[in-house]
Amino acid sequence: MELSWFILTLLLTVYKSNGEIRQEPEIFANRSSTVTLTCEHDNSDHYRLFWYKQAKGTVDLSLMVFSASQNQANIEEPFKSQNSKYAATRPEIMMSTLQINKLDTKDSALYYCATSTHYPAYFGNGTKLTVLGKNIQKYPDVTITEPTLKILNTTRCKEKVTLVCVAENFYPDHVSIKWTLGDKEITEDVATDPYATKDENTKMFNISSRLKVSKKEFTPKNTFRCTVTFNNSTHVSEKTVYITGTGGISLDIS
């Protein structure tokens, strides 16, 4: 009985040590302006707090801020030496801010807040900061390529159709893609680019998503839809393309 109570207590302690970390999902800002990112969490035992930056196209995290307690937040190198570009506060144990001044397009990145007692640190979902390099917003052009047939298993002769949905020539790069069949979202056999790529000539972004469908499902009775959601900081819009087993393609814009 004592052992059971010990296990229960340990489980409760581990659950409490995690908690919830809240950050704004995304922020748009203009060049040369100032932005303030906010982090809030609900565990007063987590007296350590960190801010990390993940630059576009990388998986590396760079430590920007370390706070060991309330009213104390230190900017770490190499960010510390960048002429007061960054400032951090910790007015409460469960709240912190990160201010970034004189914004440039290089500041566009994911900024993560993390907290801990000792180890490990628990991360929030991050804030995606987009610094607008141009005074424009360009909605994406969306297409589905003609399906390609691929033999996945020659011994069992199972064939699958690969549908590729391409969103291109848009700015900024805040888009998401989903596939649906009827009213149901498709999540299996879907591979979407982890982030949009930038054309250095046009400065516009492109992204693609691929869906594998069994040949038996790719019939005139089934209509597969690719929906691209675009957020240009003032308006959220959607473009949907759809294709049936006959290969017909249509475009719906809302």
Automatic annotation (TrEMBL):
Record keywords: Immunity, Signal
Record carries keyword Magnesium: no
Record InterPro entries: Ig-like_dom (IPR007110), Ig-like_dom_sf (IPR036179), Ig-like_fold (IPR013783), Ig_C1-set (IPR003597), Ig_sub (IPR003599), Ig_V-set (IPR013106), TCR_beta_variable (IPR050413)
Gene Ontology biological-process annotations: cell surface receptor signaling pathway; immune system process
Superkingdom, taxonomy of origin: Eukaryota
Pfam families in UniProt: C1-set (PF07654), V-set (PF07686)
Signal sequence interval, chain numbering: 1-19
Claim: Calcium is one of the keywords in the record: no
SMART domains per record: IG, IGc1, IGv
GO cellular component: plasma membrane
Ig-like domain residues: 32-130, 140-242
SUPFAM superfamilies named in the record: Immunoglobulin (SSF48726)
Name by which UniProt lists this protein: Ig-like domain-containing protein
Organism: Cyprinus carpio
